[in-house]
Amino acid sequence: MTELDYDIAICGAGPAGMALAALLVRRGVAASRIALIDAKTLEQAGKDPRSLALSWGSRQILEPIGGWPAAATAIEQIHVSRRGQFGRSMIDRKDYDLPALGYVSRYGHLVSALGAVCERAGIASLRPARVEALDESEDAVTLTLSVGDKAQTLRAAIVVQAEGGLFNEQQTRATNRDYEQTAIIAQVRSSAPPPHRAYERFTEQGPLALLPQDDEYSLVWCVRPHTAAELQALNDADFLQALGAAFGDRVGRFTHATARLAFPLGLNADPRSSTRTVAIGNAAQTLHPVAGQGLNLGLRDVTVLARLLAHGATPTMLSQFTELRQRDRNTTVRITDTMARIFANDSPAQSLLGLSLAAIDIISPARSLLAELMMYGHR
Q1: Alpha-carbon distance 166 to 371, whole Å?
Q2: Is the dihedral of CA 163, 168, 172, 173 positive or negative?
Q3: Residue range 116-163, pLDDT digits in tens
Q4: Which segments of the chain are extended strands (E)?
Q5: How many whole angstroms separate alpha carbon 261 and alpha carbon 354?
Q6: CA–CA separation, 362 vs 134, rounded Å?
């Protein structure tokens, strides 16, 4: 057999891909046997201003490998409510003796921190490069890359699809038309923000989240597509007024909004794999942003896969990974999908939400279960 270029080729050098590479080295895999492949340079990725919600459990994964971003705003409380209904739930970090329930950081800050870790470790970084094709044989996978105007091939024992790209284009996306939504994304400011408190506000069209970040909020407002088009057409003053009407006055009056972005939401819960390939993170499951579990679920994928591949880059390890991750993945997908369905339709179930939130706030075990899911995921 021709000698392999790498034991493990990771397609996608985003947070999940780089965290996997760093964890593999930490677990004893030689850096020279790992390749990171991405279409963007690290400098380009480091300028990405998008906000990310990181759970307390994700900090426990990233910090030991030196990948925790220097700039991260702590979430000490999470306020959950339903617009127009009685009842709410408050989750407080003090109840769990933790410094924070989670954090908000920027994508660019996180990938810059992880990129520095991977560079120090000596992990091969093939970027900018695109994966054009995969050819899997019995004993290896051959990848055809596009590097500028040139083609390059390499062989690896195992290929990990870590973020978007070729695998996602081949997957069947299960977009649920019965709760079709668009997310409006922006940074907003208010006149009286309670420090370090995040909000998850459920409206008739979907969830509205405010995540504290520096002296602003990262806004994720999920609405029906026609409403999203109407909101995008508003000037800033009218948009802020509409936001205040939907959210209420818990943070005072909304005073400023950055340029708004909109993107359609769908569910990809079909983490396909083969004998020598496996998908993790967004490539394996693209979730509705309700509860902010996407990246956190991906980082839990990373910890399990790194532990297994450290014992050998073999099909047996990939098979074990799929089995071990099934329960957490299924639970998280089911919870986020169910919440999106309920809160995006004029369903009778919505009338029970206020009572449910009140019950969660009163019954300590129920509140603890909700908090654990948001801090750690399924355990």
Answers
A1: 35
A2: positive
A3: 999 999 999 999 999 999 999 999 999 999 988 888 999 999 999 997
A4: 6-11, 34-37, 51-55, 73-75, 77-82, 88-92, 102-106, 124-126, 130-136, 141-147, 150-161, 181-190, 197-202, 207-213, 216-223, 254-257, 261-265, 277-279
A5: 30
A6: 53
Instruction: Yes or no: say if 186 and 50 are a contact pair by the CB < 8 Å rule.
Output: no
Measured CA to CA, the distance from residue 221 to residue 207 in angstroms comes to 6
Whether the predicted pLDDT of 376 surpasses 90: no
Q: Compute the distance between CA of residue 106 and CA of residue 109 in angstroms, rounded to an integer.
A: 5
Q: CATH says 177-265 is which class?
A: alpha beta
Distance (Å, whole) CA 278 – CA 291: 25
Q: What is the distance between the alpha carbons of residues 77 and 94, in angstroms, rounded to a whole number?
A: 9
Q: Which pair of structure tokens corresponds to residue 120?
A: 């120090």
> What residue ranges of the chain are covered by domains with CATH 3.50.50.60?
6-52+104-173+267-337
* Cα–Cα distance list, 27 to 183, 307, 366 (Å): 38, 7, 36
What token pair was written down for 303? Answer: 């910890």
Task: Reduce the DSSP state of residue 34 to 3 states and report it.
Answer: strand
Report residue 207 as tokens: 């969830």
Residue extent(s) of CATH 3.30.9.10 domains in the chain = 177-265
How many CA atoms lie less than 13 Å away from 245 in the CB half-sphere? 8
Name the CATH superfamily for 6-52+104-173+267-337. Answer: FAD/NAD(P)-binding domain (3.50.50.60)
Q: How much is the average pLDDT of 228-240? A: 97
d(CA 216, CA 251): 11
User: Region 200-229: what's the mean pLDDT?
Assistant: 92
What amino acid is encoded at 306 in this protein? A
* Residues 6+ away with beta carbon under 8 Å from 240: 188, 254, 255, 256, 257
Amino acid, res. 229: A
